[in-house]
Amino acid sequence: MKIWQPERCCGSSLRTGSLVVGSLALVGAVLDIINGCAGTLAVVVSMFGRLKIISCLKDVESEECQYDTSHSAVYFAVALLLAESIQVIACSMLIYGIYKERHRLMLPYILWSCVRLATFLAFSVCVVVLYFYMPLVILILLSAVFLLAAVEAIYILIIRSQYLKMRQAQSDVHVILEEESADL
C-alpha cells in the first residue's frame, strides 16, 4: 500500500512547507509551555478540585481529598510541560535538519508526531465511551480532537515527504561520488 506523498505544500515547495509546519508547531509548543506555566495549573487545580470535592463531600477526611487533588493537578501540569518540551526539542531539530539538509534530524519530529497522533486517537476512543454520559459536550470535544488528529496526520505526511526527498537526494549524491571514484 502506497502512502500519499505530496509534491508541494500550499502552493510552495515541500521544503518551505516543512519549515512552515515546523515553525508553526514550535510556536504552538512554546505558547503551550507559556500557558502551562501561567494558567494551566490554576485551571487544572480548580477543575480537579471541583470533581474531587463532589466525591469528597461524603468523605470525612476532606483535607486529605484536597491534598490528593492538588497532587494530581501538579502531575498533570508537569506531564503537559514535559510533552510540550519534547515538542519544542523535536521541532527545533526538524527546522535545523531541513535548513542544513540533514534528513536524520527530522526523524525525532516524525516519531513524536506519530506518538501525538496515537494519543489523539486513543483520547478519541475514550471520548466516544464517555459520549453516553454528556453527549453535546463530548461531541464538541470529539470534533476538536478529530480536527487535531487530521492536522497532525497532514503534518506527518508533509514532513515525511520532505524526509524521503532529502534522503533520496543524499543517496543520489553518494551514488554519484562512488561512480566518479570508480572511474579514477
Please give a structural write-up.
Helix content is 84%, strand content 2%. With 184 residues, it is mainly alpha-helical. It has one domain. It has a two-stranded antiparallel sheet with strand order 1-2. Helix 1 packs antiparallel against helix 2 (62-100).
Number of domains: 1
- Shape verdict: globular
The strand line-up of the biggest sheet is 1-2
Which parts are unreliable, with pLDDT below 50 for 5 consecutive residues or more? none
Major sheet: 2 strands, antiparallel
Helical residues, percent: over 70%
Helix-strand pattern: EEHHHH
DSSP strand content = under 5%
Q: Count every beta strand, where a strand is a DSSP E run of 2 or more residues.
A: 2
Mean pLDDT: 75
**What integer value in Å does the Rg equal?**
22 Å
Q: So what's the oligomer here?
A: single chain
Q: How many individual helices?
A: 4
Q: Separation of termini?
A: 42 Å
What structural class should be given to the helix and strand makeup?
Answer: mainly alpha
Summarize the structure.
By secondary structure, this protein is mainly α. The chain has helices at 14-56, 62-100, 107-130, 135-183, and strands at residues 8-9, 12-13. The chain has 4 helices and 2 strands.
Topology:
Elements: E1 8-9, E2 12-13, H1 14-56, H2 62-100, H3 107-130, H4 135-183
Antiparallel strand pairs: 1-2
Helix pairs in contact: 1-2, 1-4, 2-3, 3-4
